[in-house]
């Protein structure tokens, strides 16, 4: 690219880069040994009064955000992972090489600083630079600092700029990491073993979802990207591990909205000798534990409205939820009547059985009303092919989905371990998949069925949508706000 065709700001930065090199300054050194960051500096020297300093020498580094020359001196602000800090220098105190680095400095450049910490007369902690090194001479200008990066689409596409210009974005992702760490701590403390399951699978399963497909050249075979780790984790229970979990990436070829992204993080665990009643209690305990650790309380605001994670959470069957919020008793309705009610509410889907229509009617009538955490229990048998039959009703299964803030945040079963029943249900699913070309129906997985034939103890399994928990804990309206790099169309499309 020739300079005359380049953005004037980029052209000017490129000119400075070339001149620095010509003057013998390497603007891209290999390393810089930092000994202090912004947070450590504020904690260590909070007792300094105006005009006071300490003689100890430190090295700090970061990206330049502001620059305020004052004759032969200058103040500037730089940013590291921990926050912003102020720098001060007098050009006559610097070596010739360091003076050149400062002379050619632009907003956005990354620098290394050597000196002592003092507090200005106006009360700002600062590093008085005795050394000033260019660590990365940048070409792309940062967005104007008073407006930051406000365009939502640009924030998602250029997350690196979002993180630089919007400190609150960094805090959200730091909190996301904390949520994931707390999940591990909770399960590890209860004796669970963290495991890994394949991302590339010869047969997909464990959820009602359309998979992404790929092709393995060496084996000349079609592979599917993981939609769920369930069938592999159950094999580990069969193999003798009583408590296992997988914090894993899942991939589902589905639409994108405020709570869905094709690539997402799932926490899934399985525990032998338990059922869905036991796991209901454990589910509310782990989420309430996270809420207390992150928010300091079980009650806090999400999107301007209080939400309360105090245990125990409400339990409500799917059929009773439809009665409460939709005024309909599906036990007294035929499949066609339920389908008609769904169509009245704008549903254009084509379902193959009564259970699917009941689940659809629940989505249409009840889901949006479920603000405080609630367990929706006892789902239709037809939509739950991996779940034990309900102890009291043959048309239902022992399954719950927890909801909060108007969205599903997890899923759990009393896991089906009757090998004949399991085969029968998966064969029925496979028939649906092939006859009506339903890509979300479960294919027949003979290796999984072999494991169930070997024998799986009574087991309770749980899946948690990690992003949705993070959305609530960080008060973010969209899943795209808490995924570093959400799926987006190519900018040239």
Give an overview in words.
- With 493 residues, the chain is an alpha+beta fold.
- It has two domains: 3-142, OB fold (Dihydrolipoamide Acetyltransferase, E2P); 165-313 and 372-481, BirA Bifunctional Protein, domain 2 (2-Layer Sandwich), CATH 3.30.930.10.
- It is 33% helix and 25% strand.
- The protein contains 14 helices and 19 strands.
- It has helices at residues 8-22, 38-44, 96-103, 152-157, 159-165, 167-189, 230-238, 276-295, 318-326, 335-344, 354-365, 419-435, 446-454, 466-474, and strands spanning 58-70, 73-80, 83-90, 110-119, 125-136, 193-194, 200-201, 213-216, 221-225, 243-251, 263-272, 299-302, 305-308, 314-317, 374-380, 396-404, 407-408, 410-414, 459-465.
- Strands 6, 10, 11, 14, 15, 16, 17, 18 and 19 form a nine-stranded mixed sheet that branches.
- Helix 9 packs across helix 11 and helix 10 packs parallel to helix 11 (354-365).
- The chain starts with 7 loop residues before the first helix and ends in a 19-residue tail after the last helix.
- The mean pLDDT is 94.
Task: List strands and helices in order, with pairings.
Elements: H1 8-22, H2 38-44, E1 58-70, E2 73-80, E3 83-90, H3 96-103, E4 110-119, E5 125-136, H4 152-157, H5 159-165, H6 167-189, E6 193-194, E7 200-201, E8 213-216, E9 221-225, H7 230-238, E10 243-251, E11 263-272, H8 276-295, E12 299-302, E13 305-308, E14 314-317, H9 318-326, H10 335-344, H11 354-365, E15 374-380, E16 396-404, E17 407-408, E18 410-414, H12 419-435, H13 446-454, E19 459-465, H14 466-474
Helix pairs in contact: 5-6, 6-8, 6-14, 7-13, 9-11, 10-11
């Amino acid at each position: 690219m020739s300079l005359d065709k380049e953005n004037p700001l980029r052209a000017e930065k490129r000119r400075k880069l070339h001149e620095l090199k010509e003057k013998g300054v390497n603007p891209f050194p290999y390393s810089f040994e930092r000994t202090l960051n912004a947070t450590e500096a504020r904690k260590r020297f909070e007792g300094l009064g105006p005009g006071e300093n300490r003689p100890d020498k430190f090295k700090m580094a970061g990206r330049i955000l502001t620059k305020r020359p004052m004759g032969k001196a200058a103040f500037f602000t730089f940013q590291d992972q921990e926050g912003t800090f102020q720098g001060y220098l007098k050009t006559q105190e610097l070596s010739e090489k360091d003076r050149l680095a400062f002379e050619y400095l632009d907003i956005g450049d990354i620098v290394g600083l050597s000196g002592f910490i003092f507090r200005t007369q106006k009360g700002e902690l600062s590093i008085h630079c005795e050394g000033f090194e260019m660590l990365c001479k940048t070409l792309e200008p940062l967005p104007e600092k008073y407006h930051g990066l406000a365009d939502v689409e640009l924030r998602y596409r250029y997350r690196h700029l979002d993180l630089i210009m919007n400190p609150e974005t960094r805090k959200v992702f730091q909190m996301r990491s904390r949520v994931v760490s707390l999940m591990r701590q909770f399960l590890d403390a209860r004796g669970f073993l963290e495991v890994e399951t394949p991302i590339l699978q010869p047969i997909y399963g464990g959820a009602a979802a359309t998979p992404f497909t790929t092709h393995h050249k060496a084996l000349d075979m079609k592979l599917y990207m993981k939609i769920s780790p369930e069938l592999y984790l159950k094999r580990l229970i069969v193999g003798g591990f009583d408590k296992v979990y997988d914090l894993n990436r899942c991939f589902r070829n589905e639409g994108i909205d405020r709570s869905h992204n094709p690539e997402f993080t799932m926490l899934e665990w399985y525990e032998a000798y338990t059922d869905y009643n036991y796991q209901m209690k454990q589910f509310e305990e782990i989420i309430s534990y996270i809420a207390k650790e992150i928010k300091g309380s079980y009650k806090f605001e999400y999107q301007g409205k209080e939400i309360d994670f105090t245990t125990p959470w409400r339990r409500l069957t799917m059929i009773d939820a439809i009665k409460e919020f939709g005024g309909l008793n599906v036990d007294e309705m035929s499949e066609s009547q339920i389908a008609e009610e769904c169509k009245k509410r704008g549903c254009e889907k084509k379902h193959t059985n009564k259970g699917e229509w009941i689940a659809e009617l629940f989505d249409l009538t009840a889901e949006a009303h479920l603000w405080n955490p609630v367990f929706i229990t006892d789902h239709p048998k037809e939509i739950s092919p991996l779940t034990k039959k309900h102890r009291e009703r043959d048309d239902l299964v022992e399954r719950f989905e927890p909801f909060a803030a108007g969205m599903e945040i997890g899923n759990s079963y009393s896991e089906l371990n009757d090998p004949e029943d399991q085969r029968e249900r998966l064969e029925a699913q496979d028939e649906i998949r092939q006859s009506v070309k339903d890509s979300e129906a479960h294919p027949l997985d003979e290796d999984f069925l072999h494991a169930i034939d070997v024998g799986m103890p009574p087991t309770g399994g749980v899946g948690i949508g990690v992003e949705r928990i993070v959305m609530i804990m960080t008060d973010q309206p969209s899943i795209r706000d808490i995924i570093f790099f959400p799926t987006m169309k190519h900018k040239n499309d």
